[in-house]
Structure prediction request, 189 residues.
Amino acid sequence: MKLITTVLASLVCAALSLHGEETKRGDSLHDFTAESITGEEVALSDFAGKIVLIVNVASECGVTDQYEVLQALYDVLKDRDFIVLGFPTNEFGGQEPGTNKEIAAFCKREYSVTFPMFAKIETNGDKQLPLFRYLTSAANPDQVGPVGWNFEKFLIGRDGKLLRRFGSNIEPDSGEMIEALKEALKEEE
Prediction:
């Protein structure tokens, strides 16, 4: 029995060390990696010093037209170190059924998206992308907890910390969002 316990303990320790990166709790955006929509691993620390807006997106949602405003914001503010990162998910109403290649083609064709897009992910549950574990649990003045629907928006400061969180019903060009963006961009002045 002692031998079995020792072997089991060794296996558990080995498994934890193999998956240490996945189970490690990050303290900022910069602690994570994610797969791009074309399959490359991206260190999110590449966005250090930028204001980042992370959005979980879907091609067949009632608010999919938010892509247009997200792209416009990116076009206007990218020279001020602002970037939008899109993370497709199919977990809300099955509204992102396509492959990564189909999603990329849709975004380009329908909304001329040029901001970085990532591979389809899970924002909640057992298969939750570790980045979203951070985003849904980090303190902020808006809310903490699971993502509720497509096109939730997470505003990240230059230091990689979550500043604000906005629901799907908050348009990217709403007064509330624009004020939050202005405040975040003031950090550079």
Summary: The CA atoms of residues 56 and 92 lie 10 Å apart. Confidence is low (pLDDT under 50) at residues 1-24. The domain at 27-188 is CATH 3.40.30.10 (Glutaredoxin). Strands lie at 33-35, 41-43, 51-57, 82-88, 153-156, 162-166.
